[in-house]
Amino acid sequence: xxxxxxxxxxSHTLAALQEFYLEQQQREGMKTSQGFNQYSIGSIEExxxxxxxxxxxxxxxxxxxxxxxxxxxxxxxxxxxxxxVYQKLKEQDGEDFSVCILEYDRRFSVxxxxxxxxxxxxxxxLPENLLPHSFDIVIADPPYLSEECLQKTAETIKYLTKxxxxxxTGAVMEEQAAKHLDVKMCKFIPKHxxxxxxxxxxxxxxxxxxx
Length: 211
Hints:
- By secondary structure, the protein is α/β, with parallel strands linked by helices.
- The chain has helices spanning about 10-35, 55-70, 85-90, 145-160, 175-180; strands spanning about 75-80, 95-105, 115, 135-140, 160-170, 185, 200-205.
- Helix 2 (about 55-70) crosses helix 3 (about 85-90) and helix 4 (about 145-160) packs parallel to helix 5 (about 175-180).
- It catalyses: L-lysyl-[protein] + 3 S-adenosyl-L-methionine = N(6),N(6),N(6)-trimethyl-L-lysyl-[protein] + 3 S-adenosyl-L-homocysteine + 3 H(+).
């Protein structure tokens, strides 16, 4: 029989595969039926290989609100490796501020001119039109819990900000965050849409509403 050489999926694997495709179809259908909002959290799914973990809707809203207040009227906000805060900020139509997203994942280029490709390994490899100290607040979430990653991201933050910094990273990075950015831990505890093993915290260098 010619079919003998064709690998066959087990019934269990086949069922799991069918379930996956069905969920995918339902998700796509939901996006279409709900008048899909490209700025809603989850519109671009997490890529764990890029160390991406989206904030919960509540956390993203809280951080976005804090950023708008800190930036002030007509303020400029930079989101460095913090796309779920960027998405939440973009949901706030009519608010008087501007925002851009610096991100390694080129899927976020769907956001047009506000997207700036960013690789923390080259912290100052930025477009010429991104002037130094031109943002009222920088929100950053370095992708890895390592001092090297934090130190390089800190170079970018210090280049961009006029002064205010809102850093989101692990509680274990408290000492390094103070060393590289002179920021202090807030009482507010950020949550992710999927629970992370590492305790996560926010750090600021100004009087914020996160305490």
